[in-house]
Write a structure and sequence with these properties.
Blueprint lengths: L1 H18 L6 E11 L8 E11 L4 E11 L5 E2 L1 E3 L1 E3 L14 E11 L7 E6 L5 E3 L8 H4 E5 L5 E2 L2
């Protein structure tokens, strides 16, 4: 009888471990939308809207990634606001683990949206990374990746 209980407990434990997904440690910035600025004054600008998915160690209290845009020839496009994050210096919006923050992050680049061919993350500074349960030795810049859902805009490493 005791043998059956031990086997049953072992089966439950192994089943729970197999059903638990592996701990992911990524923060993904998704380019969701590109739209030309509605401003009537030149120069033309392209505004990119981002969603941030938190698959890291814990709640993100602050994250800012510096983004660079290039055209089809590889020339850098000037950014008016090229830092993307979960809020502003005045108000940070926490993103809980396994949640997505949509439409709260923007970047603006000079020229029309059709000029932007590639995006890449240049840096994530340590002072712009506040994540609960982040190990002391972790490099926040290595946790962040970029993906694009916008046709014509690809990502480079």
């Amino acid at each position: 009888m005791n043998f059956k209980i031990v086997v049953f407990v072992a089966w439950l434990t192994l089943g729970a471990i197999a059903a638990t997904p592996a701990q992911s440690t990524e923060i993904t910035f998704f380019v969701m939308h590109a739209e030309a600025s509605r401003s009537m004054s030149p120069p033309a600008r392209c505004i990119l809207t981002f969603a941030i998915r938190n698959d890291s160690y814990g709640t993100i209290h602050r994250i800012v990634a510096n983004i660079e845009a290039t055209d089809v020839d590889g020339e850098r496009i000037s950014g008016v606001v090229s830092s993307v994050g979960n809020g502003s210096r005045e108000e940070w919006l926490p993103i809980k683990q396994r949640e997505i923050s949509v439409g709260k992050s923007f970047a603006s680049f000079e020229g029309g949206c059709n000029r932007i061919a590639r995006l890449r993350i240049v840096s994530v500074l340590p002072e712009d990374c506040a994540i609960r349960m982040l190990p002391e030795e972790a490099d926040c810049g290595k946790l962040v990746r970029l993906q694009s859902a916008v046709p014509g805009i690809s990502i480079s490493e």
